[in-house]
Amino acid sequence: QINPLNMMPNLPQTKHVGQNSELSTERELSSIPRADSNDDAQVWEYPSPQQFYNALARKQMPAPEKYVDVMVDIHNFLNEGAWDEVLKWEARHKDECQMPRLMRLQGRPRDLSPLARISSWIHGIRPFDRHDWYVDRCGKQVRYVIDYYEGVPENDMPAFNLVVRPAIDDFGSLTDR
User: Fold this and answer.
1) Residues sharing a CB contact under 8 Å with residue 17, sequence separation 6 or more, in sequence order
2) Where is the region Disordered (predicted)?
3) Among 52, 132, 135, 145, which has the highest number of CB atoms less than 10 A from its own CB?
4) What is the pLDDT of residue 161?
């Protein structure tokens, strides 16, 4: 059963076959307001480490159990950063909408955006992930493209770069860009 809001199946909180250690089933709330609610307090909820591990296992992606908690922290941190960047773009439309909300999102890790494709030709660097986020700008749907890149580690800590921009789906998004 695919959830149309995030294009993911409902992820179980149960231990995956072959999993050795116990992972937390606690979920964190994001700061990102949900468009499917009129309640300003309703925000998106991040997956628990167990759900994150199950999602990676389902996609047959490597997920060392000892690093899942850190991977979830990075995932959540990057999504908060992406939302901050979306809000910078949305600030141009404060007169028409004081509180944009995230309607839904879609991970597209195998799809290069046009910008990422051109950048990969020139610089040889490809994003490790891509998301399309659909934002409700007080009744108007606006799609944002987010490319996630690995950065140069700083003090033995991983670094990441996000390229967030409105998708050029209409003239308004083109003029915003």
Assistant:
1) none
2) 1-42
3) 135
4) 92
Buried b / exposed e over 122-137, threshold 16 CB at 10 Å, is eeeeebebbbbbbbbb
Contact 89, 166 (CB under 8 A): yes
Q: Considering the entire predicted model, what is its pTM?
A: 0.85
* pLDDT (average), residues 1-5: 60
What tens digit of pLDDT does each residue of 156-176 get? 888 899 999 999 999 888 899
- Asked, for residue 19, whether it belongs to a domain, the answer is no
CA distance 113 to 162: 13
**78 conformational bin, left if phi > 0, alpha if psi -120 to 50, beta if neither:** alpha
Into how many domains does the chain fold? Answer: 1
Instruction: Work out whether the CA dihedral 144, 148, 149, 150 comes out positive or negative.
Output: positive
Q: What is the pLDDT of residues 100-146, one digit of tens each?
A: 999 998 888 788 888 888 888 998 889 988 999 999 999 999 999 99
Residue 154 corresponds to which tokens in the numbers above? Answer: 């700083």
Strand partners, 165: 145
User: Is 20 in contact with 65 (CB distance < 8 Å)?
Assistant: yes
What domain range includes position 112?
A: 24-176
The answer to whether residue 13 sits within a structural domain is: no
DSSP class of residue 16 equals P
Report yes or no: 107 and 134 within 8 Å, Cβ to Cβ: no
